[in-house]
Amino acid sequence: MNTAIEFKDIRKAYGDTTVVNRFSLTIGKGEFITMIGSSGCGKTTILKMINGLVIPDEGTVLVGGKDIRNEDLITLRRNIGYAIQGSVLFPHMTVEENISYVPNLLNKKDKQKTKKAVNKWMDIVGLDNDMLNRYPSELSGGQQQRVGIARALAASPDILLMDEPFGAVDEITRVQLQEEIQRIYKQTNITVVFVTHDIAEAVKLGTKMIVMDQGIIHQYDEPANILENPLTPFVSMLVAQKE
């Protein structure tokens, strides 16, 4: 297995509260990892360690085999897509400007390459080009989320991080976006790490699933195996919610 991301004996605390405790995990290239657990269990903290938004107190995070502490964090983040709930688009920028933001930084001398990337991802996420000149305030919640996904992917990163990206949309749009991200994943074979509070979503999307509570991993396996053989009472409780 080629490794995309590796955590080695990670610990992180805020004051007297330990949010991640002796966390070790290896994520292979091309995996779609869903992370689920109780509120405050450390899953978002782990996600943010991958692109250096959070630095562990102890332990090592490797991305592409390189310790993030030794990397230029701006360069690291430009090569990792990041989509969160509500998409958080730049409100003063058009759809085109939002999607092209990172590609423009990477392709300063090749505007045509950036234009092609914008058109490609608009098509992949199912948005018409007549939306390119619209502002976020002129879009529906689902459209904003699609633009957020396109922006996260426009620079063709190897890794995509998603933190409850579909949590702020209605159920119909949520199902549509789940299907979109499944299709994009199959097309690109990108490595995805996806945080969710919804067990059904975690099972549907993940090639593997992490169940966390109180800063530790309770189970890491294929979703079907977790459903059939929950290893701890906490995992059993989550599985019961799915049923």
Could you describe the 3D structure shown?
With 243 residues, the protein is of the alpha/beta class. It has a domain at 3-87 and 157-241: 3-Layer(aba) Sandwich (Rossmann fold), CATH 3.40.50.300. The chain is built from ten helices and ten strands. The protein has helices at residues 43-50, 73-78, 95-99, 101-106, 111-124, 141-153, 171-188, 199-205, 223-228, 233-242, and strands at residues 3-14, 17-28, 32-37, 58-63, 66-67, 80-84, 159-163, 191-195, 208-213, 216-221. The strands form two sheets. Strands 6-7-8-3-9-10 form a six-stranded mixed beta sheet, with helices on both faces. Strands 2-1-4-5 form a four-stranded antiparallel beta sheet, with helices on one face. α5 crosses α6. It is globular.
- The number of helical runs is 10
Helices and strands: which structural class?
alpha/beta
> Gyration radius, to the nearest Å?
18 Å
The largest β sheet comes out as:
6 strands, mixed
* CATH topology tier name of the domain at 3-87 and 157-241: Rossmann fold
CATH architecture of the domain at 3-87 and 157-241: 3-Layer(aba) Sandwich
The residue-averaged pLDDT reads 91
Order of helices and strands: EEEHEEHEHHHHEHEHEEHH
In percent, how helical is the residue content? 25-40%
What is the rounded distance between the termini? 33 Å
CATH class of the domain at 3-87 and 157-241: Alpha Beta
**Tally of strands:** 10
**Full CATH superfamily name of the domain at 3-87 and 157-241:** P-loop containing nucleotide triphosphate hydrolases
Low-confidence stretches: none
- Spatial order of strands in the largest sheet: 6-7-8-3-9-10
Tell me the fraction of residues in β-strands, as a range.
25-35%
Shape: globular
